[in-house]
Amino acid sequence: MISRSTSTVTRLLNSSSDLVTGIMASIESENTSQGDFYQERAKEFVELHDQVETSVNLLDSLESFLSTFQKDLDAVAGQISELQDRSKDIEGRLKSRRRIERPLSSLLSDITISPSLAAIILDTNVGEPWIEAIDQFEQRLITSRSRTRVKAARDLGEVAEGLRIVAATKLRGFFLALFQPIRSSVTTNMQVIQTSVLLKYSTLFAFLQRQAPAVANELQRAYVGAARLYYETGFRRYARSLGSIKTRTPEKFEPIVNMGEREAELNLQRLQHAKMDGPGVTLAFMADNKAHKEPIEALFRSLLLVFMDNATAEYTFITAFFATSQSSDTVESSLSLLTPNAVVPTPTMMATPDTVTFEQNRSPVASEYEGSSRHVSGAMPGIGSVLASTKEDQALVDSIWRQVMDPVTEYCQTFLKTVLEPMPAAVPLLTMIRLTEDIVTEVQKRRCPPAENFIFGIRIQMWPVFQKVMHEHIESLKKLAEGTSGGYFSRSSPVTDASVAKAARHYVNFFNSFVCLTEHEEETMIFSNLQRLREELAKLISRHTEKITDVVAKATAQSALYEIILQDLSKGTQHSAHLKLQKEIAHWAYLDEEAKRKIVSAGQSRPRHSDTPHT
Q1: Least C-beta-crowded within 10 Å: which of 347, 514, 516, 522?
Q2: What residues pair up with 369 in beta bridges, in sequence order?
Q3: What is the C-alpha R_g of the chain?
Q4: What's the pLDDT tens digit per position in 284-299?
Q5: Which of 369-373, 452-456, 555-559 has the lowest mean pLDDT?
Q6: Whole-angstrom Cα distance, residue 591 to residue 575?
Q7: Which helix (H) or strand (E) holds 18?
Q8: Which sign, positive or negative, has the C-alpha torsion 183, 185, 186, 192?
């Protein structure tokens, strides 16, 4: 309609333009008369008038149309503004939806239990797929419990609780089945089960600790019972084998004056048992050989090394498996630390001691068990890397360890009593004391506090016995020295040069052995007893030679005894740089020089007999 009106207006304007042009032409022809002009143009004027009226009418119509069009435009503008407002509202709602899209998606993914996950728990036996599945399920279980205000979470909570009960039931049966071989047979390789199986599924047990504490406590008691029986049986057999070997080499305490000549020799091979890094340990099957013999310190060392390896390995496993604060990452990192490296010899039919220890958790022993070398596959946490992170965990781990290892510590204590009663010889006893110190240091590195306390307690028990042994030696020398003055002792055991020389050799053997076994020069317990023993030996030599009236003969006898002591001190030890040894040699060398000086002085003071000429 607008285009039609526009064309009409255009046509009128063209006609008006033609009319104006004609008028202008008429005005120019002024010579023409007006009458003729109007008469001739009357029709045109009429038509022009009609056209002007028509144009006015059209302009009025156009004005009316434009007014209507303006109203329509205002209405359209209002609608556009309304549409813009609606668009902004929709855009705001869209942004709000987008803001909650991720949290909502996350919530749905966190609480939704997929059919495949439910199928693993409901339809499959416990295995490796359960490790990841239980982790995912526990996350959804925790989320559904924490979002109780969400109806969907409440609805899924009942399903999740049912799956939790099913999972706990299956895991209980699974772990009980794993514990059964430990309980049923001592030939079971326990470390294989611990490192290759139990630690691999430790996250499943941790799930029970968090989501089914009653089941986890039941399984903990079941493991403690199985492991306790396992270690109790193994160590009972091993201690019995060591006791059988011990009876073949009875060694009882003899005072220094009654000891044999063979005991006066320094035995460096036996002194090696004072260190962990020493001879191979005694194996249980060796007891079957009736001719096999071992010194008491070798048997004691074997028992303590086997105890140490088993105790620290068990503590490490308990920490990694039962400590509630251990995360899966901690367990996985600890698994890489315990690769088998050396075979630990242990009792016959005992799995744990006869298997291997680990790179950070082993004694330096390279022997074979039952004539074969069996290595454990898998790994176990190095005790230096897996520690209970809270006091509660530490108390829990210590408690479980004690429940498992109590029978073992009792057998060790029983064997220790047979070692200390009756009293052993001084050198083997000090050798065993030094061994306990070395083992305590190693156990500290492995960070097993209960085992450390136990070994330290053994050490505490042995020191008073050592003090008593040394006191007996000192008293025996004292009585022997007093017997030289005509006492009761002299009537029963007359003192001779040989007996004094033998006592001197035994003293030197004590001194050399103690120096070999003592790294620190300021060992009050050791060297104070040696000092007292030396004083009694000096008194014995002095009183024994007092009965010699001749000064030269007396000094010669003393010098001979001093030289015996000096020779044995010089050749009997490899610790020539030891300060105590140097002082000891200096002391006896001084006495020897004094005796020789008396010989020279007495020889010079004697009257010379000159030949008298015959008359």
Answers
A1: 522
A2: 372
A3: 54
A4: 899 999 999 999 999 9
A5: 369-373
A6: 22
A7: helix 2-28
A8: negative
pLDDT in tens, 155-175: 777 888 999 999 999 999 999
Coil, helix or strand for 607?
coil
Cα separations in angstroms, 287 against 239, 293, 344, 370, 400 = 11, 9, 17, 12, 32
- Distance from C-alpha of 207 to C-alpha of 140, rounded to nearest angstrom: 13
Q: What is the mean pLDDT of the chain?
A: 80
Q: For residue 110, give the nearest of 68, 72, 145 by alpha carbon.
A: 145
244, 249, 251, 256 alpha-carbon torsion, rounded to 10°: -170
Centroid of chain to Cα 328:
14
Nearest to 230 by CA among 265, 272, 189: 189
3-state secondary structure of 498: helix
The one-character DSSP state at 613 is P
Q: Which DSSP symbol is given to 262?
A: G
CA pair distance 477, 537, nearest whole angstrom: 7
Model pTM score: 0.73
Sign of the C-alpha dihedral, residues 332, 334, 337, 338? negative
- Beta-strand relationship, 356-358 and 340-343: antiparallel
Provide DSSP, 434-490.
Answer: HHHHHHHHHHHHHT-HHHHHHHHHHHHHHHHHHHHHHHHHHHHHHHHHHHTTT-HHH
Using CA atoms, how far apart are residues 134 and 416, in angstroms rounded to an integer?
48
Q: Retrieve residue 88's tokens.
A: 């902004």
612 secondary structure, DSSP code: P
Are 466 and 430 contacting, i.e. CB atoms less than 8 angstroms apart? yes
Contact 451, 443 (CB under 8 A): yes
- DSSP strands (E only) in 259-371: 340-343, 356-358
CA angle 468, 473, 477 (to 5 degrees): 145
DSSP class of 272: G
Q: How far apart are CA 128 and CA 430, in angstroms?
A: 52
Task: Judge contact between 197 and 178, C-beta under 8 A.
Answer: yes
Is residue 320 within 8 A of residue 283, CB to CB? The reply is: no
